[in-house]
């Protein structure tokens, strides 16, 4: 699965970490639990999102990243939180998903709901202080990728 980073520049990332030679690869400890309580992993390897933000030349007025995964699962992550995130290709030494190139957004302060799996697109967006980022978020209802607006 190819991930596209959208700022003033559009970047298409390679499917494997071994092909990501234009980005630094980091290993980070980020314990993550599913909303069901199941441990998803602790040691993640991937590309720092801060490097992706810089490479894509996000507009100066960017306040959030809109992260889209399979099934149009979308979450907004505040830019200040995104700088601490990793676009992970591996977890505890194994690929993130069954398909080569599956990635997951992980980081401190990012709960499992906002830790989008099978990331397809990361786009810098601007929201006004009065805008509600949850209005842009969707989540997967069933395994067949039906989506609905997320409510809090």
Key terms for this structure?
five-stranded antiparallel sheet; 152 residues; 2 helices
Overall description:
- By secondary structure, this protein is mainly beta.
- Helices cover 7% and strands 39% of the residues.
- The protein contains two helices and twelve strands, in the order ββββαββαββββββ.
- The strands form three sheets. It has a five-stranded mixed beta sheet with strand order 2-1-10-5-6. Strands 3, 4, 7, 8 and 9 form a five-stranded antiparallel beta sheet that branches. Strands 11-12 form a two-stranded antiparallel sheet.
- A hairpin with a 5-residue loop joins β3 and β4.
- The chain is globular.
- It starts with a strand and ends with a strand.
Low-pLDDT residue intervals, each spanning 5 or more residues:
141-152
| Spatial separation of the terminal alpha carbons | 30 Å
Estimated share of beta-strand residues: 35-45%
Backbone shape: globular
Question: What integer is the average pLDDT?
Answer: 85
Spatial order of strands in the largest sheet: 2-1-10-5-6
């Amino acid at each position: 699965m190819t991930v596209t980073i959208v700022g003033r520049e559009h970047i298409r990332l390679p499917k494997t970490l071994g092909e990501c030679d234009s980005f630094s690869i980091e290993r980070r400890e980020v314990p993550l639990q599913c909303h069901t309580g199941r441990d998803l992993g602790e040691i993640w390897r991937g590309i720092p999102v801060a490097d992706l933000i810089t490479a894509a030349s996000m507009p100066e007025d960017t306040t959030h990243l809109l992260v889209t995964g399979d099934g149009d699962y979308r979450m907004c992550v505040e830019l200040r939180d995104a700088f601490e995130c990793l676009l992970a290709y591996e977890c505890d030494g194994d690929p993130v998903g069954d398909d080569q190139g599956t990635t997951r957004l992980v980081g401190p302060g990012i709960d499992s709901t906002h830790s989008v799996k099978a990331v397809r697109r990361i786009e810098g967006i601007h929201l006004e202080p009065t805008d509600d980022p949850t209005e842009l978020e969707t989540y997967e209802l069933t395994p067949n990728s039906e989506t609905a607006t997320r409510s809090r």
